[in-house]
Fold each of these.
Amino acid sequence: MLNLERRARKPSLLACLGGLLAATAVGLSAYASHGIAEPLAQSHVSTAALFAFGHGVALAVLGPTQQNSVGKLALYVLLLGTLLFSGSLVAGALWQLRTGLAPVGGTALMIGWVVYALNALRR
């Protein structure tokens, strides 16, 4: 019975990417605490880690549960938003690159959560 149940479950790319995102966030958080002296850069990397961890966990948990395309789309928008938001903050803090993609990422995060919420109502 366990074998049949295991075969019925499909692998989840979203869950895998969420787990990797959360793991990366743990490393970023540690680096922010121990490897960055400048307070503003440390704050930006810590914020990026917080968002990456939270959304990574959300993707890891919610990814395998989404059966319809709207739910999956919402989660992929969350993934993209997290990468843009957190990535932009880290790039600005560590390499002094422009953080212009952070607002785009933040907007994508809000849109992703709204789409996810509306999709939850139509089930």
Amino acid sequence: MSQKFQELIESERPVLIDFFATWCQPCKVQSSVLNTVKENVGQGARIIKIDVDQYPAIASQYGVRGVPTLAIFKNGELLWKESGVHDVNTLTQLLKQYE
């Protein structure tokens, strides 16, 4: 997964990574928010979900201490990272800003 993850974040368009856990209630809320964000940004950005229990090495590599944690990458560079649940407008604006 690590090699594939590296390829994902090397993208020319912004990639929002949702670090989540299946047992996490706020993560479920964030997931439904991200569905709307995806509709808003369309092909302008990608949204990828990473289960921290399945891929702890990736979570650890990017300093994920709690879930949900969202991170935006472009051309392999971490542009933004924050923990907690975020709203549709904030995330849509962030992704459009990095397009």
Amino acid sequence: MLYAVVDIETTGGFASGNGITEISILIHDGVSVIDMFETLINPAQEIPEYIQALTGINNEMVIDAPLFSDIAPKVYELLHDKTFVAHNVNFDFSFVKHQLSLAGYQLQCNKLCTVRLSRKILPGHRSYSLGKLCNALGIEINNRHRAGGDAAATAILLGMLLQADAEGIINQSLRKASKEQALPPNLPKSEIEKLPLSPGVYYFKDQKGKVIYIGKAKSLKKRVCSHFTGNSTSKQRQDFLKDIYSVDFEVCGTELMAFILEATEIKKLWPTNNRALKRFEQKYSLYAFEDQKGYIRLGIDKFKKNTPALYSFNTILEGHNLLKALIKEHLLCEKLCFIQKNRQACTAYEEGNCTGACVGKESAAAYNVRVKYAIEDLKKMLPSFAVIDKGRTEDEQSCLLVEEGKFYGMGYISHHADINAPEELKSVLQPYPSNDYILHMILSHTEQFPQKKIAI
């Protein structure tokens, strides 16, 4: 068996929005390295400063380097018939597979994670990060945080794991037993074997590779296999099972992240067999606009996808209650805020409790000052916080960011990241669309686990 030991350097933490800046591939025959390939890569985007500081790779170094599409044929040739090996393999594999797919190559191969294997074959170490584990094992890493240095160390680690694997754990990892007779007729056993026991989101695909169902899981393998239990012979179920040809997945650090990713992916891809989350739609939002007389108007309206909103609500009553609180606190006009309609002046003016903006007695400039204060107060009322939890490995932690009452995004950060620096967090988190369904999930989670919430 041949192994391809891979290490990459990237511009960020997720494959779809970031590029590869360096790749090293070492072909290992189980005894030693027999071939190698290494190059800097032009990621076609700026390299963030903190990543330049970590890796030493800057924009000037990659400007004349090949694009990934230029080296894709060579990379695919080296990888497609090998077992893909990396330390935290899902990270490296996700980037390489994504970049290959953009170049027209579909990478399908077995994977081995030297983090997971080390935990099983070499138990008892305090840390299984590459640096600390290699230090404990006496493996010297030259050029740390560069693809070549880290790949070389991983190749040495792989050799040690192969020698120490008296129980055949590596072969078991590649050929895990499953009840093959329970699988759908067109789904290869290998599709189940590749699934980890981690939280995440899974995608059932048909013969053409189209996603027909998306689900979340606390344990990907267990949840996927649960679809194939039971004895229902309904046409709907049988057609569903018959159409499953492959399973793709994305590992998440926590079940909450899987919930959010599932909701987002269903709204984006609209799979045929998903129904419940398709029905969720944002209902109402609070908007601000300036009318023809120069007055800034606040009002509740149906959610508009491409119009910036101050805040969103599931019910119009919830929106009106918030707006009335702002009106009372800042002496705004109910008529200009569309609370009162079909009247020449608001009730408060007729009762002598209004400055008269609705009938032109107060200038737009004076009235707008209070409206702007109301908007600022609204922003202060809306929570900004991060949810910090376990990552996909012990070398990272997961982070969800809520900013001024809206879900900004999520991703994985270092244990040493400055949580109280929102802009720094944003540079490493993947943005996601916010809606009340997702925000409610996050708020419910933080009520249950307040220790995971960090105010920003």
